[in-house]
Amino acid sequence: MLHHSKFLLLFSFILALFIVADTQGQIPGIGPLEPVRRISSGFSFTEGPASDIRGNIYFTDVPRSRIHKIDLQDQISTFLENTSGCNGLMFDSSERLVACQSGLGRIIRIDISSKSIQPITEQFQNKRFDSPNDLVIDKQGGVYFSDPVFGGTMGQDKMGVYYVSPTGQTSRLIDNLTRPNGVILSPDEKTLYVLSSQSNVMAYPVNTPGQIGQGRVLVQLQSSSNGDGMTVDSQGNLYLTRPGISAIEVVNPEGKSLGLIQFPEAPSNCTFGGADFKTLYVTARTSVYAAKMAVIGHRFATPGFSLDVDPISQNVQAGNSTAFTISVIPVEGFSQTVNLSATSSNNQISAQLSNSSVTPGNNVMLMLNTTSNIIPGDYNISIMAIAGPIVVNQIATLSVTSAGNTGDFSLTLQPTSQTINAGSSTSFTINAQAINGFTDPINLNATVSPTNSNITNVITSPIISPGNTTGITVNTSANTPEGTYNVILTGMSNQITRTANVTLNVVGVPDFAVSFEPNTVTITRGQSAQLTFNVRRSGGFTGSVAIAGPSAAALKNSKLKLTPETQSTTGNSVSFTIKSKKKSPAGSQTLTFVAMDNDERIRMATITLILQ
User: Fold this and answer.
1) What residues pair up with 536 in beta bridges, in sequence order?
2) How far apart are CA 389 and CA 140, in angstroms?
3) Residue 137's closest CA among 199, 196, 75, 93?
4) CATH number, position 324
């Protein structure tokens, strides 16, 4: 059992938690957790942020007809120019960027690798659309989009909201709103939300994909604080951009306002992204801002997997061979078998996969063989992955140089596989061997796939001569996720590139997590209820866990009493009794409990009480 002083530490932590929750500008349970930060500025008018599967953000600069990209390190690059005024963006389940091409009055699909453009819909009843503005993609692959008029000549007889089915059939769903603007679906896709520029936020029941029922007013806007684009988090809360008051308003699914998040400039649209999908990215006039949130954003049209090719480009001499590693990375537990194929843009490069089908979470080797008389140059290697209706493409580059010296080298790593605990390190031996008398020094580099910032490596001698050995040490942090990783060694010398790879299995460290089951309890005032606090143990954790609920002082205003206030356990669950009085205020309350182990690691769980 922990000492009394550690329970005091727990109570101090709870008090600090309540103080942080009341920080000005922060919406409890929502965020932002940190001050809003400006990522980049100097644009004309930013719009349409969209996240790819990795959390990179794409957004438009409408007047300049450009689409820009923000990577996970907040580095800005220009993805596409001359876009004819592209506005709203979203990725489909095949990782293609779907865009509202306002200048040409159509919805298009952009291939990320080749940047080729394919129209999805251009007309309704033989007339072009007005100015497609915003869109959302459902799980079936259909596209809902708004088509208001912002200057120019109307192509349609009415401003509307449309649906394009996966087979390309277009229908008009709504035609009675003033400048329909932002569109988004609820996480369960049973409600379509439409934000009219100078009117209301409407909610329409989705009967079947592309068919909606009678709409209702969810949020009534004032003309002085009009709306624009919007997004939704995994809990179903809406994030409405309110340019008139330079803020984003967070609204729950019942239409109740939870609070405002202020920005230095008037926001136009927003989306969630980042590696953990808990960063709110906001386009606002000349800038793009980011806010770290407590909630996870909802992913729309999520593909079941992504492809990672390592390295993405290589050099090889004519007549020689090299290899790429293709990793299939699952999304949200996707486990369906993925079928792979690879083709070259030159028939004198043959491509052979070590396996043509793979389960997500694993990888295959792609061997490329060149003929001795191939013309030197850069060639595209097209890789296609298919699982049911999901198609993901990736392009690698092979740079072929003239044959020259016929000498070569090989690389091996030993042992071929190791298992370690997260937070520990291990080593492999690198062996470089000469072929046909090759003597030039070899530059070594190593990467880990799937990429994880918690895994690093150090090569003892990054430059090695054939016939010698060196070592590579792989370090993991305690936060490294459990799983199988590939350590890929690349050696380069005289435009020759060779690779070798080994398997690293990372298992978890002893740890624990906490939760309530159930996490919502209804109590009749004057009665009591049992609260079951669960301790989920992993990695062989067997230590004692001390749990403290809200203090009597914290519960005084609610006329509630918790028994006991604290307790410890080496088991998997404990029970608390919460007693209410007949004069306890009706409504819902969220109680936070804090747990601490002997190493003073802290975990928290919340439970919602509904008093009636």
Assistant:
1) 513
2) 10
3) 93
4) 2.60.40.10
Q: In 348-482, which ranges are E strands?
A: 349-353, 357-358, 363-370, 377-387, 390-401, 408-414, 417-421, 425-435, 442-449, 455-459, 463-464, 469-476
- CA angle, 287 then 293 then 297, to 5°: 90
DSSP-assigned beta bridge partners for residue 492? 443, 497
Task: Say how far apart CA 86 and CA 100 lie, in whole Å.
Answer: 5
Q: Are residues 340 and 422 in the same domain?
A: no
pLDDT single digits (tens) 385-414: 988 767 788 889 999 987 765 578 999 999
Q: How far apart are CA 444 and CA 430, in angstroms?
A: 10
Residues 414 and 363 in one domain: no
pLDDT of amino acid 19: 32
Asked whether residue 603 falls in the same domain as residue 558, the answer is yes
Tell me if 30 sits within 8 A of 236, measured CB to CB.
Answer: no
The residue behind tokens 């061979």 is: 321
State in Å, rounded, how far the first CA of the chain is from the last one: 37
524 shares its domain with 584:
yes
Same domain, 519 and 499: no
What is d(CA 134, CA 347) in angstroms, rounded to the nearest whole number? 43
Distance CA 55, CA 74 (A): 11
Q: Are residues 550 and 484 in the same domain?
A: no
| Number of domains the chain contains | 4
Residue-wise pLDDT for 117-163, tens only, equals 999 999 999 999 999 999 999 988 899 999 998 765 578 999 999 99
What does the pLDDT read at residue 300?
A: 87
> Helix, strand, or coil here: 5?
helix
Last residue of a domain, one of 368, 403, 438: 403
Q: Are residues 227 and 113 part of one domain?
A: yes
Tell whether 206 and 109 lie within a shared domain: yes
Identify the domain boundary among 292, 322, 342: 292
C-alpha closest to that of 311 among 538, 507, 491 = 491
Residue 439: pLDDT band (50, 70, 90) is confident
Residue 16, domain member (yes or no): no
What are the CA-CA distances from residue 537 to residues 344, 484, 509, 534 (Å)? Answer: 49, 21, 10, 10
